[in-house]
Design a protein that fits this description.
GO terms for molecular function: electron transfer activity; heme binding; metal ion binding. It holds the Pfam family DUF1924. Keywords: Heme, Iron, Metal-binding, Signal. By secondary structure, the chain is mainly α. The chain has a single domain, classed as Cytochrome c-like domain (Cytochrome Bc1 Complex, Chain D, domain 2, Orthogonal Bundle). 54% of the residues lie in helices and 6% in strands. The protein contains 6 helices and 4 strands. The strands form 2 sheets. A two-stranded antiparallel ribbon has the order 1-2. It has a two-stranded antiparallel ribbon with strand order 3-4. A hairpin with a 2-residue loop joins strand 1 and strand 2. Helix 2 packs antiparallel against helix 6. The longest helix is centred in the N-terminal third of the chain and has 18 residues. The two termini are 32 Å apart. The relative contact order is 0.20.
Amino acid sequence: MKPLFTLMALIGTLVMASAASATPASDELFARYKSEGASGFDAERGKADWAKEGKVEDGVKMNCSTCHGDDLRKPGKHKKTGKVIEPMAPSVNPERFTDAKKIEKWFKRNCNDAWGRECTAQEKGDVLKFLLSK
């Protein structure tokens, strides 16, 4: 019985650690996106949006991984400028997702770069949920 209790305690700790990656900024943004009509934010839908190809540039279909890479715990590299992009995963970069203004700035810029349009409130909420799980 004791090993089962230990396993349950470990699972509970992991679930709480995952939820702890949310920040006051992300909570503020989730509330804002809900006020704009979005709801039920889903990390799996955000993962699919992350991989969704949009704009074609220089013969390459763009998606979020084009610049951020597939392993969000590692740095990425901007396609046009070659500038290094710090890891997106808050598990290795705790400064990520702590400033709502910066998050909105980057959503606006990156959605236009990858998809050729601004993201909807639902897309932003889903992608933010996905990123916070990393």
